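B., you asked whether I could sanity-check this one before it goes into the benchmark set. Here's the sequence:
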Amino acid sequence: MAKEKKSAPKEIKITGIVEELELDEDDIGLQIVDNARTYRVVMDKQGRKLLDYVDEEIEATGIITKTEDASEIKIARFHLVDEDEEDEDEDEDEAWSDGDDDDFMSDRDDD
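And here's what the prediction gave me:
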């Protein structure tokens, strides 16, 4: 009989709001609320960086593990969702100004 191989944990991308979480003995933790799901943040070096983004919406990539009490996410990388929207707006502005007016003017000159 062949042994079952356990697959390596996969990184998952979630989007949610970073919230403070009060723990025992005056410790502060973080959680990310993604629609109906809540993920407790592993407070390693990368997880602590989220302390600057409480009440902000982020997109995070990390490894999800389930414990008896909750689901935890070990953050690999993250960024603010607002940054994405601003980048998209800039891209749209650039696309609009990429010579569209020049083409219009050259069409008129041909007449």
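One thing to flag: The first strand starts at residue 11 and ends at 22. Otherwise nothing jumped out at me.
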